[in-house]
Specification:
51% helix, Arc Repressor Mutant, subunit A, alpha+beta, 4-stranded mixed sheet, 16 helices
Amino acid sequence: MAVVVQPNIKNRVRFLYSPYIETVLSLQVLYDPHHHGALLPWVIRFKERISPEDYGEIRYFGDNIREWLFLIDLVLDHPQLGRLTFADSVDHIASMPPATFVFRLLGEQVPMTEIEAAIADPAGNAVAGIFGRLDITSPRRCEEMTHLFETPEKIQKDLCVFLLSYWNQYFEEEYHWVELLLVKGVKDEAKRLAEESLARFLTRLSGGLISRDKKLRRTHPDHVLIESGSGPVEVSMSDLSEIALFPSLFVSPQSIFELSGGRLVMSFSVPPGVYLRRDTLVPPEQLSRLLKTLADETRLKIMKLMMQDRQFTQGLAVELGLAEPTISRHLKVLREADLISSVKEGNYIYYTLRLERIAELHMKILDFLRN
C-alpha cells in the first residue's frame, strides 16, 4: 500500500542570522540615527567608543555608497549566508571582480555592460548614462560616482579594510550580546510559524514594510502578493524552494527583502533588549546620582520648563513661585548631575536641558536591572 503525503512547505523555511548583516546595519544606524529612534540610546552610548577619524569614515562611505544598507546586497544571495563569519563575508566581497562589486553596490539597477563600459572609460558617455539611470544630478554626487568608476579596485579594497577594522575594534565585542537577542528572535518566530499558515506568517513578519518600495500582503491561504513600482507579482508558497528569514536588531524601520530563483530572503525586527554585563547588586554611582537628582518634584518641573525653552534663575523663580536661592540650589544639583548646561549672556545665565543624558538613562536602568 502506498500513502501519498503532501509535503509541508514550512519545511522550506530556514532561520539564520548573519554577523555581517548586523554589522552593516549598525553602521547604517550610526550613519543615519534619526530614522532609528528606538536605538538612539544605543547610538549615543556606542558612538562614544568610536574615534572621530573612524566616525568620519562611516560618514564618508555612507555618503558615497548609497548608504550602508545597500552593502547587504553584496552577500544577500550567498547560499551559505547563515554560516559565513564576518571575515568570510568580507573575503567574499574582496574576491569579487570590480565590475561585479560595482554592479552589486548599485543595487543591480545598472546593466553589467554599462558598468564595464564606464570602468573602461570613466570620462565617456557610459558614466553620464548611469547618472541618468540612477537620477544622480548633484555635482558632488557625480564626482563621487565618477571616482567609483575610475578606481573601483581601490574603493573595494578600502571598504573591506574599514569593515574589518570596525568589526575588530568596535563591533565584535558588541555582537556577543546582539547575538543573544537574535537567537531569542529566531526561537520566538519559529514558535509562531508552527501556529500560522506560511503566507499569513510572512505577511505579519514583514509588517507590510519592505525595502526598495516593495510590500508583501496575503491574497490566498498559500499565496502572497508582492507590490512594487514595476507592478504586482503573485507568488505561491509552493513555488518557493527556500525561504531564508533572518532577525535583526538594527533593521527597523527598514526591512531587507530579496526574491530570486525561487529563493526568498527576508529580515524581521527583534526588540533592542539590553546589554548583558557582569554588574553587582550595587547600582553604579552615576546611576544612583541621576535617580536621586530626578527624585524631586521641583527639579522635574524645572526640566519640563527647559524642554520648552532655555531658562534663567529669575524666570524660573517667577514661574514656579519659589525664591531665587531655592531655584539656584536645584540648578546646582542638576548641573552636578550633568543634566543641564549653561551659558552666560550679559547679566543672566541661561540653562538648557541635555536631552541626550535623559535619552540614555532608561538604558542605564535596564543595564543594571537585567544583570
